[in-house]
Write a structure and sequence with these properties.
Blueprint lengths: L1 E5 L6 H15 L6 E5 L5 H12 L7 H12 L5 E4 H4 L10 E5 L8 E6 L4
Parallel strand pairs: 1-2
Antiparallel strand pairs: 3-5, 4-5
Helix pairs in contact: 1-2
Length: about 120
Amino acid sequence: MRVAIGLGHGPGAKKAAAEAAASARKTVSHPDLAVAFGSIYLDQKEVHEALRAELGSSVLIGDAVNLTQRLESAATPGRLLMSEAVFRQVRGLPGTPERREVSVKGKKASVVAYECGPAP
């Protein structure tokens, strides 16, 4: 489940972002809740700091999260697409994993990923 929050600007905007995320987590009891923020007015580093202050270590930000989102976008419907690092850690994947090189926005080189789907 995803919740997207558009942010304005002005005094207290960073704290409001953190409070909105905390409120979403309390209100929506879903184990896979992801909250995304968008603003052209706020410094993302400041927003992340405010989120960490409000939510603690459960806030995931940075390159790994960005890569995950990009791989999700590149995945074939009905199949799993994972980074090479994740692939090395999992066992018992359905079907035969296929190595792919995925062009990822923000990366100069393609990213190695593995895709698998339902067993035949």
